[in-house]
Design goal:
The chain contains nine helices and five strands, in the order E-H-H-E-H-H-H-E-H-H-E-H-E-H. The protein is α/β, with parallel strands linked by helices.
């Protein structure tokens, strides 16, 4: 399955070696994310260093390793900007515009546990629980 990955899914995988990380690393799905995700990561560094007890350098290395190991393809906004207007119309939070726009561009679901994103109907949003249930 092709999935756009919300930044919070990546944050969850960084914070804990659990189900989310296992899905990213071992499910065989094709994962995509906007390059913007890396900017979001940088903004969350102080919070993530507290939660993980890792240094900024260690976190940066872990993100790089996770993105590479999971095979997450980072897509420049330029490649899917044609979907920006539609994404703005349906997205409840402006920080999620790039994720919705990329899911529209790829015509695939968005992996997110964000309840507000699940209320829009332009793209299908799958939670971690739903992804697990589809794999069984």
């Amino acid at each position: 399955m092709i999935l756009v990955v919300d930044a919070n899914i990546l944050f969850a995988a960084l914070i804990r070696d659990g189900t989310t990380r296992s899905i990213l690393l071992f499910s065989g799905h094709d994962f995509y994310a906007p390059e913007y995700t890396l900017k979001e990561f940088q903004e969350k560094i102080p919070e993530l260093t507290k939660k993980t007890k890792l240094s900024e350098e260690e976190l940066n290395e872990l993100v790089d390793e996770l993105v590479q190991a999971a095979g997450i393809t980072l897509i420049p906004f330029e490649d899917f900007k044609s979907q920006k207007k539609r994404a703005i119309e349906v997205t409840p939070d402006e920080k999620d515009i790039a994720y919705i726009a990329l899911a529209l561009h790829l015509n695939c679901p968005l992996w997110s546990n964000d309840k507000a994103l699940q209320e829009q109907s332009a793209v299908k949003v799958l939670t971690t629980k739903e992804i697990i249930s589809k794999e069984r």
